[in-house]
């Protein structure tokens, strides 16, 4: 898919399909008015006939309007000014894309008015457009013997004023990089557990390192991790025939001495629950338990593509959680890399067991801040549903930065408290702590557990259990929080 900016006079602009906005009540903006004039009032006549009201995401496809070089015009409802949220924009872009996908249209030009989204500028509108078109055309057919039909849409132009041309170009560049990061993350998430193993994740990281001069990759195997003392991480892979990997990707875009932003991803390539086995229904979806790792790889893909001027270290704790004669049992106690001991009361609370050692490992990079991202708790789905990712942090400034980035990138998170009052739920009679805190506040106690391994750090935790994939007929990975994290790093650079 190729994206371009166009500032041609609208009447002579050639495209298979010119997409125009119609506001509530059939009102036309500047661009649509120019089209109406060129077509000698054809547009107003059609709207006057009442076939499109301007309600958000309503559509009307017109053929061969007089006076225009464009072959078709797609009218799309944009609703009322003042009620034009990011969510509405998502809806109307989705509706336009559906029409484009159902036809044989190869080129389209979005010529939406400047007020299509309240309080958002040309950069924001163009970038979101690129991201959403790319995401809407995403197909995952790698595991099918018969591949999906190729997408017919080849070029998408965004129509801007001449003053906004450069802004538009930047938006395309950054939007395409984010979109690329999102599809990388979706691919990794959608791959089945028998393909996407810890070793496979490591190979993908190595491939990224080969693509860029300033990306280097180091893989720690189980023996090296044992030597270091990462017994908590290793307790998770103990029951699996797939060896765990600690994947470390270093992106050097800033000065040699600049402190890195560290991203830590949960990479459980399949979570059966282990000896605390999960119920069978829907267990296939636990192949998505590496979506935190996928987001980290996707974000790094975007960062490297944009060559952002800062340093980033990505650490992925990759393991498979399986039951077997060698698996960890409830009641087993392990010493973490930090020296603290953990009683594993439930082997299904494995994410925190791999992340804690990765967080301790992260300290050696002297981070500016650490953000971990994980499909950590079912409780987060109960708390926030599938809309917002959960955010917890020991640093309010960092939390704000991440919330703001998520808001801007339309990849929102919502903060939950990390008060000390919750810590006592992790008290153990036999070790320094236990790995579960009971049913109340499951997302918070999971974060409390992690916080014990990031005490000296500026640290935040994103729980993407509810946002990383969708279930049902449209089952598939979403690539969240690649936009949030990339935005955060753009803001930092
Ligand atoms: N990967 C799961 C969390 C999860 C469950 C994400 C469902 C998305 C959908 C995690 O490893 C897990 O099993 N957590 C347990 C923790 C509990 C045993 C304290 C959970 O949430 O039930
Ligand atoms: Mn689990
Ligand atoms: Zn898990």
| Major sheet: arrangement of strands | 7-8-10-9-13-17-14-15
Bound ions, cofactors and other small molecules, one mention each? ligand BES, manganese (II) ion, zinc ion
Q: What's the CATH superfamily of the largest domain, by name?
A: Zn peptidases
The gyration radius over C-alpha positions equals 25 Å
User: What is the terminal separation in angstroms?
Assistant: 28 Å
Task: Return the CATH topology of the largest domain.
Answer: Aminopeptidase
Uncertain residue ranges: none
Structural class: alpha/beta
CATH top-level class of the largest domain: Alpha Beta
The helical percent reads 25-40%
Number of helical segments with 4 or more residues = 14
- Number of E strands: 19
Layout of helices and strands, plus pairs?
Blueprint lengths: L1 E5 L10 E7 L6 H9 L3 H7 L10 E5 L8 E8 L6 H17 L4 E5 L10 H15 L18 E5 L5 H26 L7 H14 L3 E6 L1 H7 L2 H7 L7 E8 L8 E11 L19 H16 L4 E11 L11 E3 L5 E3 L7 H12 L6 E6 L3 H7 L4 E5 L2 H13 L4 E3 L17 E2 L7 H10 L7 E5 L5 E2 L5 E2 L4 H11 L1
Parallel strand pairs: 1-6, 2-4, 2-5, 5-6, 9-10, 9-13, 12-16, 13-17, 14-15
Antiparallel strand pairs: 3-4, 7-8, 8-10, 11-12, 14-17, 18-19
Helix pairs in contact: 3-4, 4-5, 5-9, 8-10, 9-14, 10-13, 12-14
Bound molecules: ligand BES, manganese (II) ion and zinc ion.
The site of zinc ion (ZN) has 5 residues, from β9.
